[in-house]
Amino acid sequence: MATVVNVNVPKGWAELSQQQLRFLLTTMVTVNRDNTNVGFRSQEDYALHIAAQVQTICFFKWSGLTVVCPYDSGYLVRSGDIEFMLSAETVAAALSHLSWTKELPAEPIRLDTVDGANAIPADISSGLSFDAWLACDTLWQRYQICTDETLLRQMAEILYNKENIKMTAAETLGIFYWWAGVKNLVSAMFPNFFKPAAVDSEPTPPSYDELRRNIDAQIRALTKGDITKEKEILALDAMRALTELDAQAREYDEIRKKYPSK
User: Fold this and answer.
1) Adjacency order of strands within the sheet including 82-86
2) Long-range contacts made by residues 117-124, C-beta under 8 angstroms, separation at least 24?
3) DSSP for residue 237
4) CA distance linking residue 252 with residue 202, whole number of Å
5) By CB neighbour count within 10 A (0-12 exposed, 13-18 middle, 19+ buried), where does 195 fall?
6) Given 3-state DSSP classes, what are the helix, strand and coil percentages for the chain, each rounded to the nearest 5?
């Protein structure tokens, strides 16, 4: 008689509990570290191998199944007092439900506390000024260039309101996934201001000078060139400032369509 065991695992980033999120981030860090000196034919092979390992570890953790030992091409596992075989094919099929772990979150998700400090709301709906937004987004874009984890820790000091915050590697990685979700969220909310790159062009990280000019342009757009309003603008709630920038971008596009340059 076949053994039937119902298994439930999270179906996306948004379904993760705090404990599950911390476990996933820790597993990602551990698996990457353990494979640092392993030779792979290509970066793609490396990514596939890492993803499969992370998904397998998370599947057994979150499903509540305990691996007794590898057996033949599968596993002998235990669920409560019941032991049974799981074939490699069954495990592979199960891992398809965790394919989302290879993707960046569509919406922000983050660890509630780090080093005893509480985070601001994940969706930055409050607790983040426009000045702090500019700082975080600049650090994020600089991270795309050099992948220096110091930049993520500087972001954490803002997002958790704690100077000299102490972070594990997993918590630092959590900042990367949090802000990736923030970027996806604001891109969906403010499509006029955050326009996607042309599909036929290869996006390149901006230089420091380009970042500086972009910040200046955003501030000028909101102050209308009145430098006496700069302090007031920088203190605005980040989402309020982005709403206004999106509205200005939409109005500019409408004018350009109505009066195209010849």
Assistant:
1) 66-71, 74-79, 82-86
2) 117/160, 117/161, 117/162, 117/165, 118/160, 118/161, 119/159, 119/160, 120/159, 120/160, 120/161, 122/178, 122/181, 123/182, 123/185, 124/182, 124/238, 124/239
3) B
4) 25
5) exposed
6) 55, 10, 35
- How far apart are alpha carbons 192 and 198 in whole angstroms? 14
Instruction: Give the pair of three-digit tokens for residue 77.
Output: 């596992």
Partners of residue 66 on adjacent β-strands: 78
Among 6-10, 24-28, 67-71, 202-206, the range scoring the smallest mean pLDDT is 202-206
Residue for token pair 């891992």:
95
Quick: pLDDT tens for 134-188: 999 999 999 988 889 999 999 999 999 999 999 999 999 999 999 999 999 999 9
Handedness of CA 219, 221, 225, 226 (dihedral sign): negative
Band of residue 210 on the pLDDT scale cut at 50, 70, 90: confident
Q: For residue 122, what are the contacts with CB-CB under 8 A and spacing of at least 6?
A: 108, 109, 110, 178, 181
The answer to whether 211 and 219 are in contact (CB under 8 A) is no
Longest dimension (CA), the chain: 79
- Let me know: does 46 contact 135? Beta carbons within 8 Å: no
* First-to-last C-alpha distance (Å) of the chain: 77
